[in-house]
Amino acid sequence: MSTNFTQLLISIAIITIFVLLWGARRESFARIGNSWNYILPGFAFLVSAEMFNFAVRFLVQQGRMSAAAAEPLIAAGHTGIVLGLLLTAFGVHRWLSTVQDMCIESAVVKKRNFYLRDRVSRDGMLLSTVPAALYRTSGILEAGTSEISFVNDKIEDLLGYSKAEFEADSTLFASLMHDDDKKAFETERRELWHQDRIVVEHRFRHRDGEYRWLRRHLERVGGDGTDLTEWHGCVFDITDLKQAEARLTNFLEAAPDPVITTDKKGKIVLVNAQAEHLYGYSKAELLGQYAKILIPERHHNHHLKRFSNYLTATTSQTIDIGTELVGQHKDGTEFPVEIAVNPIESGNERLLAFAVRDVSARQSVEAQLRQSQKMEVIGQLTGGIAHDFNNMLTVVIGNLQLLERRATEDEVTGHAARAAMDASMRAAELVKRLLAFSRRQLLAPKNTYINDLVTEIEPLLVRTISETVNLKTRLADELWLARIDPSQLENSLLNLAINARDALSSGGTLTIETSNAVLDENYAAQHKEVKPGEYVLVAVSDNGNGISKEILSHVFEPFFSTKEVGKGTGLGLSMVYGFVKQSQGHIKIYSEEGHGTTIKIYIPRSKSDCADNLESTTRSKTIPGGNETILLAEDDDGVREIAISLLSSLGYRVLKAESGQEALKLIAENDDIALLFTDIVMPGGMTGAELAKRAIGSNPDLKVLYTSGYTDTTVFDNGLLEKGCDVLSKPYRKERLAHSVRDILDRD
Question: 235, 418, 680, 708: which could form a disulfide with 688 (CB 3.0–4.6 Å)?
């Protein structure tokens, strides 16, 4: 074998070994494999041609073939060698190009891997700075569980367990959830599982045993929500936030008023229990709703326009919006509210916190107070007028009675006197009703069993009302004793019966009921004039026309009447109102048009268990007189003269005095004075009570009868006279004067 051939084989072997080493990887060998399509055939031609020439030369050397015959054969072998060299050279060229490309790609890959490793390192450093745990989880809805396949190191800061522990046990995270939250989450799981994004908040147990609130933000990255579904998520610790919310919630729950917080769009984000109670909605029903559901629809534009101004306001102080606002209960009931609004900055968002107060009760009390004040002013006016009228009527009535006695022979004069007397008595009754309304009439309260009183006046009520009206009484058993003036209560019931009769023009039923009643602090808080305690209730009801709301607030005012002119004075209900109030009672009217009217009178319960004997209101028609000496102390000239005339006509000897000092002088000079008849209020610095005290000091057997045009509020409450004294109110007729004087003189 020639040296050239040997060198060629060695070169080919080296190249082959290099190629095999370089192409050890499957993908690299595959890429350079196409070069062998040229290298191997060329190498085969080269080896075959060289071996052919070697054989020819060997035959020539052995003398088996001539040189001339071998020359063309050797030329052909050289041609094959050339062809093999060409094919091998072309294949080697292609192989070298492939190797060059692979070397370039290897350098690029190395560089790319370097940058990737650097990026991963940098991304890892970036992820390590995120204040949340990142994780990947997957699960099947029907299986009811999920497993964590990746989690970063931050999970240890949240729950105390390492990244390796979570990755080693894919169910560890789910096992740490609070049992109560597991149950709640399972009910939400099916709905949440089909969403692309989920935000949930639950409690998880830390390694130290304490529970932490975690907020999880999950986004679906694989699956359709029914089969195997994969989620990427991040977890935040919101324990401090939850604790702050709990403190805020406790504060709001302790607030006495409803508190509602909305965002800038008017959507409710926070409410307390008081708001639930006021509006009738549960917290779940309110959260996420717009605040306009708490406002009547007709007020939406007005209310929301006022609220929107505070979203752009620069002040952060609480602002009182006022009481011109209306709230609406879940059942549609409307009520007035007072609202204070406080803008709250929450990050980049401005919220509105509304403190709401139902002012229905306050407005009701204020209305009652205004009504009470109005009635009090009217009462003071009528009381003052009544005093002067009483004095004038005393003179008029007294003189008319004297005129009637002397005009018996003149029919025309007698008729005129009687007509004038009737008018005067109606005027006196009018003044009496005014005094009753103003709560300044003289009352004689007694311990009264009202059932007996109603039974006694029932026949009178039947005669008073129309035949088309059916009277019913429902009297309670074991009724308490009441402290009341029985005669005034009779008059009140008669007035109420007459009003009911007028309301029952087409017939109907009038019902009088009695019962025991207790008015508690809650009722008294809504009716400021009411004192909590035990009362006897007398209710007078009819099923007549009823009273409209517009009229209802005026029915107790004097001279207010819905009847035709000349059909009434308008003082019936006002007299009842004043009498009940003066008796420390309470009166309430309930009425609706078309449904009748009920008036309830609450009379204070008597502290005694024994009823007083009620005197008969029927007196003998005989006018009693006498011959005793009476001292009359009266500063009004007209009243004094008519009183002297009336007493003298009854047979009494009368001494007159214009002042207390003059009366004391007459007492000192006359030891036969049996009765002192004195006005309570007189000029000169001495009252009727002071006069009586000094007079009795001189004459212990002296009897005293007081008279006054003032009311008992002025007389008794101002200390002008002690309760229990005998008082004859002005104006008085001769008959009443005669009976009062005779009763006192005959008293032991």
Answer: 680
Quick one: pLDDT at residue 632? Answer: 92
- What gap in Å lies between CA 392 and CA 434, rounded to an integer? 16
The residue with tokens 């919006």 is 321
Asked whether the beta carbons of 497 and 509 are under 8 A apart, the reply is no
Whole-number pLDDT of residue 534: 92
Residues 649, 338: Cα–Cα separation, whole Å? 70
Please state the pTM of the whole predicted model: 0.39
| Contact predicate 631/677, CB 8 Å | yes
Q: Cα–Cα distances in Å, from 588 out to 414, 484, 551?
A: 46, 17, 15
Environment class of 159 (CB within 10 Å of its CB; exposed 0-12, middle 13-18, buried 19+): buried
Coil vs helix vs strand at 600: strand
d(CA 664, CA 675): 13
Residue type at position 661: Q
Q: Mean pLDDT of all residues in the chain?
A: 75
Q: Write the pLDDT tens digit of every residue in 439-480.
A: 455 567 888 889 988 988 888 888 778 778 888 888 888 899
Strands (E), 610-712: 629-633, 653-657, 673-679, 703-708
What the block records as the tokens of 469 is 């009206």
Calpha distance 188→612 (Å, rounded): 76
CA dist 325 and 295 (Å) reads 9
Query: Where on the phi/psi map is residue 296: left (φ > 0), alpha (ψ -120 to 50), or beta?
Result: beta
The Cα 153–Cα 133 span in angstroms is 7
Per-residue pLDDT tens over the stretch 259-275: 888 887 888 888 888 88
DSSP track, 360-396: HHHHHHHHHHHHHHHHHHHHHHHHHHHHHHHHHHHHH
Partners of 231 in the β-ladder: 137, 220
pLDDT at 562: 56
Residues 440, 743: contact at Cβ < 8 Å?
no
Which letter does DSSP use for residue 746 in this model? Answer: T
Q: Which spans in 272-325 are helix H?
A: 273-279, 283-286, 300-308
| Count of CB atoms situated within 10 Å of the CB of 505 | 12
DSSP assignment, residue 409? S
Q: Collapsing DSSP states into helix, strand and coil, what is residue 468?
A: coil
> pLDDT digits over 196-245, tens only?
788 888 899 999 989 998 888 888 777 665 667 787 888 888 888 778 77
Q: Which residues are bridge partners to 446 per DSSP?
A: 484
H-type helices in 194-291, by residue range? 239-254, 273-279, 283-286
What 3-state class would DSSP assign to 89?
Answer: helix
Residues 6+ apart with CB under 8 A from 549: none
Q: Show the tokens assigned to 108.
A: 């690029």
Residue reference for tokens 């639950």:
202
353-387: b or e for each residue (b if 16 or more CB lie within 10 Å)?
Answer: bbbbbbbeeeeeeeebeeeeeebeebbeebbeebb
DSSP secondary structure letter of residue 531: P
The residue ranking higher by pLDDT, 128 or 512, is: 512
3-state secondary structure of 719: coil
